[in-house]
Prior knowledge:
By secondary structure, this protein is α/β, with parallel strands linked by helices. It folds into three domains: 4-58, lambda repressor-like DNA-binding domains (434 Repressor (Amino-terminal Domain)), CATH 1.10.260; 63-155 and 293-333, Response regulator (Rossmann fold); 162-291, Rossmann fold. It contains twelve helices and twelve strands. Strand 1 (63-68), helix 5 and strand 2 form a beta-alpha-beta unit. The longest helix has 21 residues, at 293-313. The radius of gyration is 26 Å and the shape is elongated. The protein starts with a helix and ends in an 11-residue tail after the last strand. Residues 312-323 have low confidence and may be disordered.
Amino acid sequence: MVTLQDVARAAGVSIATASWAINNNKNVRIPESTMRKVRKVAADLGYRQNAMARSLARGRSDLIGFISDGVATSPFAGQVIQGAQDEAWRNGKILLIVDTHGDPDIERRACAFMLERQVEGIVYSSWVHHEVRPPADLARVNSVLVNCFDRLGRFPAVVPDEVQGGRTATEMLTNAGHKRIAFVNATEQTPASQGRLQGYKEALAAAGLKYDPDMVMTCTVDQEGGYGIMSQVMQTGATAVFCHNDRTAMGLFDALRERGMHVPDDISVVGFDNQKLISAHLHPALSTVGLPQYDLGVLGIRTLLQREDVGEKGEGGSANAASQNGPYSPIRVACPSVPRDSIRILAAS
């Protein structure tokens, strides 16, 4: 194995100079000709730098911790991780991923493990958009929350824009001429249920339609809940329904089919999440609004690295302080419309 000593000897420089040249140490002034010579010799000899030594020399590990509570259980977590990994690679970083299954003890141990390995930052991600209480150790390193937030705004948070998403889903129906639009929401009060309801109201107002609370109903947002709520939806005289998620819409499809009714001829349906195993394979294919999982991962890493740069430049203090510029307002990522075949266009009245 070619060593740093071999490179220094072949280049006719000291070991320290060889190290500074290879690591591009900006705190040491080395003639450009010497830098080029050392690097050429290193390349010719096939020298491969030890990662740990490089980290010590540069003062950075190129490792980013990624803690998630649902890699194995969520259909969306993989896309968030893919976005984070792609953005990390583009910046010469590698992710160190731990799935905690939502166990606080594993979270604490994961943070300690990552800090021991000198990660440059930690992305803390949840499979469902909600308020969290991050591990205390997260405040010891540059950290960003993805698809979740803490009440005090101590950390930057990247989350879906639920209000915009609800507005977009409803606009898909108002733009098709529908005026009686039901909304099947989640029983549980969450950022998603509250935000999507607000977006629904805003879209109705923008279309000149009055909000009617009787057109809003709640259920468990799964296939069974959607199946059970169908009779209540039909009693409203709705020509269209916006479902909190695609699983609820799937249950609604089942109930309509049993009654000999057809989507979109008898009623138009829009879902949310763009869970492709459902939305793309229903008949007809479900028009829906997508959750921007990939973009959440990308922006989580991008936000982390931007904070690191600010910390290095001394603009606002250390990037390792959770409250560097806090409290933080969440960074909201747009949810895109995914039109398919479940919306009937009504003739203008």
